[in-house]
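TEACHING EXERCISE
Course module: macromolecular assemblies
Task: Read the component lines below, then compare them to the predicted structure of the full complex.
Student: A.B.
Group: 4
Components provided:
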Amino acid sequence: LLVAALIEVRSCERFGVLAAAASEDDPELAEFYRGLFASEFGHYHVFLKLAAKIDDEQRVEARWQEMLAAEAKIISEEPVGPRIHSGW
Ligand SMILES: [Fe+2]
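Instructor-supplied answer key:
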């Protein structure tokens, strides 16, 4: 569930970036991306809520923070370059 939440929150961020990038030239596309941002944001929260239902909330939060730190470390050690799921 936490891995799924991580995937969803990163998708959410990407759609937020796309919405911002499209907002000036293509408001309709920007609105489409904002809708996807909202969907992914909701999915991210659902996965975290489900995780908190099957285990102690503090343990879930501690594990979530561990995963975020591990992800940040992995991303910071990768070379910069274009990828679907990359750091920069
Ligand atoms: Fe999603």
